[in-house]
């Protein structure tokens, strides 16, 4: 958990390469421990970094993977699940795919 907090600080300082590096280290630890919720949370955090860099394909992939894990562990009511959907909505809006953006926003409200 400390790594995730550290990464959020690094992200706020806009050192995205370093943030991705630490998120990946955190993901590796969660995967080794079999902590699916941790993996999903890490993927949720990685998405905005890719978005900030303009790499919307990787951002979308990261968020979709996190949603699949949340569904797998039956945790679709968590704040992190909603955050992934909101980030997906933002990605689609940046790509001017407004109907998909609205759809993701609506899903986040359920």
Automatic annotation (TrEMBL):
Per-repeat ranges for TPR: 40-73
> Disulfide bond: is it a keyword of this entry?
no
One Pfam family of this protein, by short name?
TPR_12
Q: Does the keyword GTP-binding apply?
A: no
Q: Which UniProt keywords apply?
A: Repeat, TPR repeat
What InterPro entries does the entry give?
A: TPR-like_helical_dom_sf, TPR_rpt
Q: What is this protein called?
A: Tetratricopeptide repeat protein
């Amino acid at each position: 958990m400390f790594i995730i907090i550290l990464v959020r600080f690094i992200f706020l300082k806009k050192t995205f390469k370093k943030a991705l590096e630490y998120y990946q280290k955190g993901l590796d630890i969660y995967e080794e421990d079999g902590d699916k919720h941790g993996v999903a949370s890490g993927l949720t955090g990685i998405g905005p970094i890719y978005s900030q860099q303009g790499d919307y394909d990787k951002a979308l992939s990261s968020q979709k993977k996190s949603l699949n894990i949340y569904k797998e562990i039956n945790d679709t009511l968590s704040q992190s699940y909603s955050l992934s959907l909101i980030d997906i909505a933002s990605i689609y809006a940046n790509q001017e795919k407004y109907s998909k953006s609205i759809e993701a926003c609506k899903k986040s409200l359920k």
